[in-house]
Input
Amino acid sequence: MWLPWKAALALAAALAIVPFLVVIGLFAKPSNRTLQYVLSFARETAVVLGLYALWQFAGTLALLHVTGAVARGRWIFDLQHDLHIPSELTVQHAVLHSSFLVQGLNVFYATMHFPGMIAFLIWTFVRHRDRYPQVRNTMVLVTGAALAIQLIPTAPPRLTPGLGFVDTPMLFHQSVYAPVGSPGPDQLSAMPSVHVAWAVLVALGVLVFSTSRWRWWIVAHPILTVLAVVATGNHWWFDGIVSVWLIGLAIVVERSLHAVLLMVRAPDGKVSVSPVDTVIRVRTGEMDHDAL
Output
């Protein structure tokens, strides 16, 4: 199991208070660039840990309202059938012929989610500092929206009886989830898939920010993630579709909020929009996007 939400929240509070105390002690923003960098990194780590703690805690809230979760899972299955979306059973049955492949996908599902996003955030913070606030804000919006939806419990394929799905994590004793109704990661927070949302965000960020010719290999990350969540019975196709839709919505909201903030702070209220990277800047002087 990953870090408990209470421990994550405590670490987030500690990391958030240290920069505050340092700044207060100096009575001004530190002038040393290295110190500024360290304090900024501590603050951003606190944000990520706080978001993680909120995610873990939200799972315990959903446990209080499990009624109807299976019915909602069946509704998604029927909806996908009516829309002629191929069944997840096709993918699962294809990989079940190889226990090695199934166990590999179980491990990928359990281990690549957080490290992938953490590595991406660190890479963006270090290599593309000017873009980091946009990435952080978008991730917060997407994750927050997903958590709000997940408060309505929805059973994943492997917990929806009568459809023929196999609970592959339980089959090979690789489950990261606690039993339904007990403390721990919530198995009924399947809609939407944060796994898919974060994997797509990572891929989009690398493709947009990196100039390396090898950057296209990052597309394998969301592809493998979708394969893993579907083949293991942890998510419906629809969970991933909603996640991608939330990303688009979050980007629009983040850009809109940023534009409004710049207009409020601009001396003459004039702003210009770059058609290349959509970074909004004030004509009279570039504003710091980190204000968001």
Summary: The first strand starts at residue 271 and ends at 273. Confidence is low (pLDDT under 50) at residues 21-28, 271-292. The chain has two domains: 1-62, 63-262.
